[in-house]
Structures are given as C-alpha cells and as structure tokens.
Design goal:
three-stranded antiparallel sheet; 60 residues; mainly beta; single chain; two-stranded antiparallel sheet; globular
C-alpha cells in the first residue's frame, strides 16, 4: 500500500510503501529519499488494506 507523506525535516512530499503483511500496527525507521534524514514511521490499519500513516522526527 502506498502512502503520500511529507518529510518532517525538509518538507518534501514523497510516496512510501507500507507492507500490509507487517501487521495492523507498525513502527519503523525509514530515511527520507530527498534529504536522507531518518523518520519514525507509524502506520495503523484503519480498514482492510488501508493504513493511516504518521511521521515523526527521529531527533525528537
């Protein structure tokens, strides 16, 4: 499942992939493909195959 997210560091909009096989609640670190800074990605399944995705800065 693809999600459009905005980098909390550089502000660029990018598309990330959330693996539905990873479970209904997921948290992981992924680097911004634009500025290479690390995000904390939180994805929660709201409906079958549909995830709400939130990003946070890893530096707090």
């Amino acid at each position: 499942m693809d999600a459009e997210v905005q980098c909390p560091y550089c502000g660029e909009w990018v598309t990330i992939f959330v693996d539905p096989g990873g479970g209904p609640a997921q948290s992981y670190v992924e680097d911004c493909p634009v500025c290479c800074r690390p995000w904390l990605v939180h994805a929660v399944e709201e409906e079958p195959g549909g995830f709400a995705v939130a990003l946070a800065r890893q530096d707090g």
